[in-house]
């Protein structure tokens, strides 16, 4: 059996209802109220960016149409996102992380992996460090975070979600394989709604079911991600925490449970996708010169259309508008669409842009 010193010490920190929590912190009148951050329900195609836990009790979730959220929670308070404020708080959180390690891999404004195998303060215990980070976020920023602690990224990320909000979960080496066997397939990396439905149709409901398939069978059924499933269900995830990952493109796409037939349906989905890809653009501190629309039809025919700009863009309104214009230019009555996607590319970092203007 391996010594504990052979394992990496990985922490996944995930802020609790981040945008909504910042709004409640900065606006005391919102404390304890059902708060929804996102597009306003009176506008067509508004989408929920995040919701306070008071709103979540009514079934409100991120990426849900704002009109649907209002139906579920009629007393909800809607506020528009303040991304500049969230980015500043995210920077402050990152400074807290840096007290313990420089191996920090942000996934978004509100979550990150930390490798504390060799921590700066010589504490040695990932659990102690996770507790200290949570307490610093609470006392200095008046916000709460949940933490997952394990020996690899995948398990640490899953663990951080178990005791939300303001939770902590440690899954040690001896417990990982049993934990993975019990994990529902929809919790696995890369498993969206469509893949989960395919797995369940094959009689695969948990990690234990996946474990019964050979790597060749997983590859045949799920492509290259099959190798990842084969490894992770056995507790193996060798992906390092990577502090810097230069992006070539940022994308968001969705395959729908039913074919979209009207331009209005498609535009509502583009609102959601634009919000997601805009959040990733903000997190990466990039500006994009190219917006690309991806459309896959019911017969699996696929097209991509793009528009490029001389000056980089980094605002939600332009991304959304361009995606909808590209869609309208290629829309024909009677077409049935099964997938839409938006991607941004040809990046320039914000610091580089200062030299252009």
UniProtKB/TrEMBL annotation:
Which stretches are transmembrane?
none
Instruction: Note how many cofactor molecules are bound and how.
Output: Binds 2 magnesium ions per subunit.
Q: In this UniProt entry, which residues are annotated as the site Substrate discrimination?
A: 19
Q: Which residues of the sequence carry a binding annotation for Mg(2+)?
A: 14, 110
Which residue numbers delimit the UmuC domain? 10-192
Question: Which one GO biological process term can you cite for this protein?
Answer: error-prone translesion synthesis
Q: Which CDD domains match?
A: PolY_Pol_IV_kappa (cd03586)
Active-site residues are: 111
Keywords from UniProt, A to Z, are: Cytoplasm, DNA damage, DNA repair, DNA replication, DNA-binding, DNA-directed DNA polymerase, Magnesium, Metal-binding, Mutator protein, Nucleotidyltransferase, Transferase
Q: Which GO terms describe its molecular function?
A: damaged DNA binding; DNA-directed DNA polymerase activity; magnesium ion binding
Location(s), subcellular: Cytoplasm
Q: Give the highest taxon in the source lineage.
A: Bacteria
Q: Which reaction does it catalyse?
A: DNA(n) + a 2'-deoxyribonucleoside 5'-triphosphate = DNA(n+1) + diphosphate
The cofactor named in the record is: Mg(2+)
Tell me one Pfam family matched here: IMS_HHH
For this protein, the record's InterPro entries field holds: DNA/RNA_pol_sf (IPR043502), DNA_pol_Y-fam_lit_finger_sf (IPR036775), DNA_pol_Y-fam_little_finger (IPR017961), DNA_polymerase-Y (IPR050116), DNApol_IV (IPR022880), PolY_HhH_motif (IPR024728), Rev_trsase/Diguanyl_cyclase (IPR043128), UmuC (IPR001126)
The answer on whether this UniProt entry bears the keyword Repeat reads no
Q: What is its EC number?
A: 2.7.7.7
What does this protein's UniProt record list under function?
A: Poorly processive, error-prone DNA polymerase involved in untargeted mutagenesis. Copies undamaged DNA at stalled replication forks, which arise in vivo from mismatched or misaligned primer ends. These misaligned primers can be extended by PolIV. Exhibits no 3'-5' exonuclease (proofreading) activity. May be involved in translesional synthesis, in conjunction with the beta clamp from PolIII.
Stated family:
Belongs to the DNA polymerase type-Y family.
Question: What is the name of this protein?
Answer: DNA polymerase IV
**Which species is this record about?**
Mucilaginibacter auburnensis
């Amino acid at each position: 059996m391996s010594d504990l010193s052979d394992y990496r010490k990985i922490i996944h920190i995930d802020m609790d209802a981040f945008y909504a929590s910042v709004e409640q912190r900065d606006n005391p009148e919102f404390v304890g109220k059902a708060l929804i951050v996102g597009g306003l329900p009176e506008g067509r195609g508004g989408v929920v960016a995040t919701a306070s836990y008071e709103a979540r009790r009514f079934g409100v979730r991120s990426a849900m149409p704002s009109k649907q959220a209002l139906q579920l929670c009629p007393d909800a308070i809607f506020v528009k996102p303040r991304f500049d404020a969230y980015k500043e708080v995210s920077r402050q959180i990152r400074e807290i992380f840096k007290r313990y390690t420089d191996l920090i891999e942000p996934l978004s404004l509100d979550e990150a992996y930390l490798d504390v195998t060799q921590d700066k303060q010589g504490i040695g215990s990932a659990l102690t460090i996770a507790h200290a980070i949570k307490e610093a976020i609470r006392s200095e920023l008046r916000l709460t975070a949940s933490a997952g602690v394990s020996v690899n990224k995948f398990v640490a990320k899953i663990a951080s979600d178990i005791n939300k909000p303001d939770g902590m979960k440690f899954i040690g080496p001896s417990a990982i394989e049993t934990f993975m066997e019990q994990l529902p397939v929809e919790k696995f990396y890369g498993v969206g709604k469509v893949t989960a439905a395919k797995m369940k149709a094959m009689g695969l409901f948990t990690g234990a079911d996946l474990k019964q398939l050979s790597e060749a069978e997983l590859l045949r059924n799920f492509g290259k991600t099959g190798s990842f499933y084969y490894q992770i269900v056995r507790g193996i995830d060798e992906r390092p925490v990577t502090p810097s990952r230069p992006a070539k493109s940022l994308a968001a796409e969705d395959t729908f449970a039913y074919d979209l037939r009207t331009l209005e349906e498609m535009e509502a989905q583009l609102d959601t996708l634009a919000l997601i890809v805009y959040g990733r653009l903000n997190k990466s501190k990039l500006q994009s010169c190219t917006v690309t629309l991806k459309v896959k039809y019911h017969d699996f025919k696929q097209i991509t259309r793009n528009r490029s700009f001389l000056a980089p863009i980094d605002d939600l309104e332009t991304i959304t508008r361009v995606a909808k214009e590209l869609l309208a230019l290629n829309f024909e009555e009677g077409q049935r669409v099964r997938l839409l996607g938006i991607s941004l590319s040809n990046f320039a970092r914000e610091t580089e842009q200062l030299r252009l203007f």
